[in-house]
Amino acid sequence: MTLPGPTSDPVPAGVARTALAMAEQLRAELARRNVPTWDAPPVRPDEVAISVWYGLVAYTDGGRVWWKRPHRSMRGRPLLTYAQTLTGAADRLAADYAAARARPIPERLWQVRPHPRAAAPRHEGLSG
Question: What pTM value is reported for the model?
Fold first, then answer.
């Protein structure tokens, strides 16, 4: 799915065109830095999300870009950062992408487990 641009399909109802345009431009800047991105749906009427890597999602409202860094603060809390320019955001997101890729993805994401109800017996007909 490609985010609508100025000459493509109409903007989804309620989503600010500036947020969509900035998200598409950020995706292009990240692609120039060999950073893959995936579309994410608009999170609010004036915000769009861009998924970069597991746990690394950038948000934009058309005026700035913000995300949680893969590193934690000295107190162990997530670090929220932002950039007001596309090139600044793309440069820093590319560095955070490299840092996030260097960390192992939690093993539970690689394990395929059956749904708990998948093994439950099925009752056919009524007993009585």
Answer: 0.69
